[in-house]
Write a structure and sequence with these properties.
The protein is of the alpha+beta class and 157 residues long. It contains 4 helices and 5 strands. It has one domain: BirA Bifunctional Protein, domain 2. The longest helix has 21 residues. The chain is globular.
Amino acid sequence: MAAFEIGIPKGNYKNEDAVSRVIDYICRLNKPEQVGGMGVFPLYVEDMVNQFLAVKRIYHKEEGKQVFHIFISFEKSLGFTVDEVMEMGYEIAAYWGYDRQVMFAVHDDTQNIHIHMAINTVAYTNGEYKAYYPIEDIIEYVKPIVKRKISSKWFGK
């Protein structure tokens, strides 16, 4: 594994309960201190779901893909802590968060610590619908974030 890997879980996320299912899955560890977001108040699952759906209703964009779901997994040997990954989670969320609602949670229940993110397909700023983001673009955005965290952790820079 490279320093990190990004994946898009299978599924078309067009079903009516897609937002609820994804956010519920992301928050399944029941560790609110490991949940963050931009454009949402990440307090309770139901509230985050309702916030995503409210934007869709306001702009009359309740059809099609409901949520964009990705995960970012970090190489175990890097030794990132939950707090360090949370910090990166906010930086990564900024890729979408200035016009899209993003919620995320750090999962530390597998061999590699990772982040799951849910991104609203409807922008809260102007109602633009966008259901897909090229993974290559996301990788290029994430690379310097991870590189800075590695340099800070291992070399004190």
